[in-house]
Every structure is written in C-alpha cells, then in structure tokens.
Amino acid sequence: MAKDWLNIDDRVFIVTGGSSGIGDAIVKDLIGNHAKVVNADLKEGSFKDDNLLFVQTDVTKRDQVEHMVATAKEKFGTINGLVNNAGINIPRILTDPTDPDGKYVINEANFDKMFTINVKSVWLCSSIVVKELVKQHKGVIVNMSSESGLEGSQGAGIYSGTKGAINGFTRAWAKELGQYNVRMIGVAPGVLEATGLRTLSYEEGLAYSRHETVEQLRAGYAKTSTIPLGRSGKLSEVADLVTYFLSDRSSYMTGQTVNVSGGKSRG
Prior knowledge:
The chain is α/β, with parallel strands linked by helices and 267 residues long. The longest helix has 28 residues, at 108-135. It is built from 8 helices and 7 strands. Helix content is 42%, strand content 14%. It is globular, with a radius of gyration of 18 Å. Helix 2 (62-76) runs parallel beside helix 3 and helix 6 crosses helix 7 (214-222). A 7-stranded parallel β-sheet has the order 3-2-1-4-5-6-7, sandwiched between helices.
C-alpha cells in the first residue's frame, strides 16, 4: 500500500492503551503513515518517534483525560480522531458448582474493574474528545471491540458484555454525531497472534473456565480449523483497518462494528 494513499499526513490521533498489544500496533501504523499520535496509557511503550507524544493517563479519570486532551492540543494544535483501545479481560465464570465462591467465579470487584476500564473509559474519552471534533465539524472515533462482543466467549462473559456495550455505543452515537460530520465505527478482532498481554494468570483462568489445562488451551490457540483463512490474525492487520477507518477513504462508513476474524463465526 502506498504510504500516501490514506492521506493522513500530519493528522493527529489519540490512541488509548497504545503502549502494548493492538494499541502499540495501531500507533506504529499511524506513525508509519505520517500521522501524529498521542499515546494515552499508564506506562510508556518502547516505541519512540518525534511524532509520538506519550501522556501518562488513567483513562477512567476525567481530570487525567482532560489533561491528556489539553496536552495533545498544546503539542499538535488539533485533534482529528480517537481510538478507544484501552481494555482488560479477567477470565471468570458465572458459577462453579464445585467451588461456588472460588477464585474463578465472577465477583463484584472483577465486574466493576472490567466495566470501568472497558466501558466507562470509552464514554469518558469519547465525550471529551468529541467536543473538539464537533467544533471542527469533522472527525472519527474508532472503538476497539472484540469478536467475543459479537459472538460471546466461554469464560469471558463480563468481558463479552463490556464489548457488547461498546458496540451499542458505536451504533447509537454514530446516529447522534452524523449531523456534525463525525463518524464512529467499531473494530472487532478475533483470534490474534500472541502478545505479552496473554499472561499465565490469564491463561489459567481461561483454561479453568473451559475445563482444560493451560497446555490444552495453548494447543487450541494454534488450532485454526475453525478459521476459514486457516491462521490467526496479525496485530498489523487490525492496525491497518483502524488506520483506514481514521482516513477519509472510509468517509461513508459509520455505525458499523467490523469483525476482523479470518471468517470465523459462531458456526
């Protein structure tokens, strides 16, 4: 793809949770296409560039998000779009007959943490950034969802619920914001290549929820028979789509959540 095809040179985009995983891939893709990027995360990533500004931000705190947006405007002068990428998944099950109050049963703390980070942050960041986009009568917000938000995922009921809520935000707010020429679109990745975010504690919880060992779970990651394209997705493939949605090449798309899963679905 020609680097000038997207024509996002010098546009300014905020990416929440841009220091690792999909967020890191999105940051690098945007920078590679000559955009300017603000990474709003708790910890700075290893990637550095003159057109990348890191602002330490807890995206669940209004004062910190407002500070991040003000810092972005002071540095770059404007904001053209936002990627709501920050999120967390704590694998938990609804009930466990053998251990009703066990460590892998959903509790209130798990619920609150996932909904605060995954859902509240999307509302909070969107509500603050969109003021800037509406003023200039142009802009894009991309919400990172998940295949599990469309199809559900065993052992990830609360996480699936948070992503389902985001899908609802995307549809409803796109209807509200269209009159201001502001677009909102969702991206829902499926099974992707491993990242450092797939920790042992995460794998242990997910394996328990699926009545298998961690070794069996890992073998399942490598099994791609349920994916028509026969492989896991690459982080860069998700990032490419996000970058496309932030560009004017997708200017007649809003309100959709696009599944990036190699053709994998419930069936």
